[in-house]
């Protein structure tokens, strides 16, 4: 999962301090692995260097945690591009996809589009496997079927998520 | 409207309401000869309604459907019914074979309706049944065959008139995954070798994986995913 894009996405709703960003991240995405402060600051300084965020204000007292960051136009474009690009179909995508969907809801983008685009990408892989299965021997068929069932499981989870988007929207924007 | 070169079936901005319920709410796409296109989307999103409109079974409230240079949405009932009989084939989820007829008579029925002699129609029907590996069921009635066998008989019937488009609505919905995939394999192989396009409504990704591309329907709006990505 891309921490940089996630933090950028969280900044879209308004400028935040580093510690505030960490808290928002942990609350929404960090369930069993909260971010270290060090990760937040190294990520923010990289985003700053790349012009995706800017320093919006510094509180008295000094220290890196006192900086308030705001997303730039380039940053918003970067988040949009990340959300619109499907993930490579592979097992255990759920944390990245979940993050993308929640961010889309938080930033008032069309979460359904992420699902449709990802389904398309998964189907692309599934078509290749299906074709190999049709032309292959029994061993090929069994191996391809295993991969196909796993990709299908991802998609079924995606579809269930899509069916629950309204509930999810209520939960994350609360 | 602009029709992409070489397209066989084009839908533009179809809208259909049933009382207060919006079933179709726009979108546009084209289907080319010999292409297998999956129609996907949540339950109630309008997939079956879209298929019925494309096939000239249901008239949309507005929008345009073009088939091979002819405007389906401007045709009268008789013309659309002739179009369905001669150019299209149909497979549905279940309950589509006539229970009083034998399997071979069922497969031959579309040819008989188009005026072929019984002998001629049944000979062609049997060839298709062989292709779908159900010729040994020729004398049985639909009530005496399994669901998977019945679906193969239905696929044979959908192809018997050499249609240019086969419309299939959840054709594997009642089958287990092994039989469902076998039906898909046979349907798509037969359609490809006859250069027939297939419009396949399904919610199963493994079934959709037999298609060349997909159209997604959400809240009645159709999206051609090839154009998006
Ligand atoms: N003949 C009808 N009369 C009234 N409402 C209808 C009729 N046919 C469809 N609808 C409504 O139109 C909407 C779209 O229905 P449709 O059957 O096209 O959905 P679908 O995508 O095929 O769903 P499923 O996956 O469950 O088959 C639904 O809200 C449905 O209730
Ligand atoms: Mg339906």
CATH level 1 class label of the domain at 1-87 and 164-171 and 196-224 in chain B: Alpha Beta
Instruction: Determine Rg of chain A (CA atoms, Å).
Output: 19 Å
Estimate what percentage of residues of chain A fall within beta strands: 5-15%
Oligomer: heterodimer
Note the total helix count of chain A: 8
Biggest sheet character of chain B: 6 strands, mixed
Strand order of the largest sheet of chain B: 7-8-9-4-10-11
CATH topology of the largest domain in chain A: Arc Repressor Mutant, subunit A
Helical content band of chain B: 25-40%
| Associated small molecules | adenosine-5'-triphosphate, magnesium ion
CATH hierarchy: architecture of the largest domain in chain A: Orthogonal Bundle
Nearest-integer average pLDDT of chain B:
93
What fraction of the residues of chain B are assigned to beta strands by DSSP? 15-25%
Greatest interface (CB-CB under 8 A), with counts per chain? A-B, 23 and 20 residues
Give, in order, the helices and strands of chain A: HEHHEEHHHHH
Q: Quick summary of this structure?
A:
Chain A is mostly helical and 174 residues long. Chain A folds into 2 domains: 3-84, Arc Repressor Mutant, subunit A (Orthogonal Bundle), CATH 1.10.10; 94-173. Chain A has 8 helices and 3 strands.
Question: Could you characterize what this model shows?
Answer:
The complex is a heterodimer of chains A (174) and B (229). In chain A, α1 packs across α2 and α1 (3-11) packs across α4. In chain A, a hairpin with an 8-residue loop joins β2 and β3. A three-stranded antiparallel sheet of chain A has the order 1-3-2. Chain A is built from eight helices and three strands. Chain A has 174 residues and is mainly alpha-helical. Chain A has two domains: 3-84, Winged helix-like DNA-binding domain superfamily/Winged helix DNA-binding domain (Arc Repressor Mutant, subunit A, Orthogonal Bundle); 94-173. Chain B starts with 8 loop residues before the first strand and ends with a helix. Chain B has a domain at 1-87 and 164-171 and 196-224: P-loop containing nucleotide triphosphate hydrolases (Rossmann fold), CATH 3.40.50.300. Helices cover 36% and strands 24% of the residues of chain B. By secondary structure, chain B is of the alpha/beta class. Chain B has a six-stranded mixed sheet, sandwiched between helices. In chain B, α3 crosses α4. The A-B interface holds A 86, 112, 116-117, 119-123, 126-127, 129-130, 134, 148-149, 151-152, 155-156, 159, 162-163 and B 38, 40, 42, 185, 203-206, 208-212, 214, 216, 218, 223, 225, 228-229. The site of adenosine-5'-triphosphate has 12 residues of chain B, from β2 and α1.
